[in-house]
Prior knowledge:
Number of helices: 13
Helix content: 25-40%
Largest sheet: 8 strands, parallel
Strand order of the largest sheet: 2-1-3-8-7-4-5-6
Oligomer: single chain
Number of strands: 8
Distance between the termini: 31 Å
Amino acid sequence: EAARGAGKRRRGRGRSRGFAGKSVSMPKQSKDRISYFYDSEVGSVYYGPNHPMKPHRLCMTHHLVMGYELHKKMEIYRPRKAHPVELAQFHSEDYVDFLARVTPEHVSENLQQLQRYNLGEDCPIFEGLFNFCQIYTGGSIDGATRLNHGLCDIAVNWAGGLHHAKKREASGFCYINDLVLAILELLKYHPRVLYLDIDVHHGDGVEEAFYLTDRVMTVSFHKYGDYFFPGTGDVKDVGEKKGKYCSVNVPLRDGIDDMTFQRIFQPVMRKVMEMYKPGAIVLQCGADSLGNDRLGCFSLSLDGHAECVKFMKGFKVPMLVTGGGGYTKNNVARCWAYETAVLLETKLDNHLPENDYYEYYAPQYTLKTRPQQVIENMNVRSYIEQIKKEVIENLKSIEHAPGVQMSEVPPDNYIPEMNDDDEDENPDERLGQYAMDRNIKRDEEFYDTY
């Protein structure tokens, strides 16, 4: 995303003069400046019959955002596709190369490699897989770059948040870990970055990537026990070596409700912010922690889930907000549209606006719904207090706001040079081979009437 030469900037330099790219409208000065990334291509991807991951939920989310006219209060960007060389800043080159080459037609010829990279039933090979990975990852990296340069206060990429992917293998419906790559981008400008995960599943891929460093603190609130995927995230897993106490795990039980969740979430996150003092936050908003999720087992309401977003926004730290899990797609769309409004400090009518997916919200056609099934809350007060006490004691053990010697800032996301004809252009503008493509407004993405 960054223009040629932008990497020569130093930390602390003021606001950029400008940034090319089509936006719908500028938000009001009194509120946070929000950059929102969306490409309709991500919503047309199909994991396969009976697979719980439905990227179509991203189209549904975007149509609600448009229907509520939230796009008029944000800058809207179509993310560029992340280059393979960028993906290899975290993932192994052989894994990236295989993802780029493999197609559904050639699966039977590559069974050994599929097994090596954990590709199969949970993480199938489907048409347009690598393109999908490039787009959702490009959105998260682009968001991090804009935050680095002070071009926005909050960046939103609901297509991102695929937190299970490992360095050399796919896992839990995730192929490329856009979150790790966005954090690596943020670390070029910020000594400390906080990663916060409210998905029902433990954010294992991100934790593993930064388990030995104090430059990233990973905090995950998740279901733990009963062989629940991925089986990691015990409260005793706190990091190692320089990263000791910089991995924070809050293991929860079935059926947690809004009040119980906030009883542990707010004091823990207040302590995290006090002790760690991050320069930037990456917030993964997996919607499978909502009640009635197809794969989840929590009982959070829309308000309870969004309260976490509102609480973190209140710290006024540059923040990248992503999606994640979420397998009851009409509720996922409700959740992320609502949380977009929370970030914009905008109230929404409970009656959903007319849109192309209106019938998906039958029979209520409302933003907020009553849970159809209530799971018993197994998180008794004594358990929550015990976990909270242990987590906060661990946080007190870390060196207060660990420092890092910041040398010259490395270049912004590592993109191979494409063209030398642009040297005299404004360095704050998007340039090169992809400039025209990035500025395209697609009718199906940006229209504001139905």
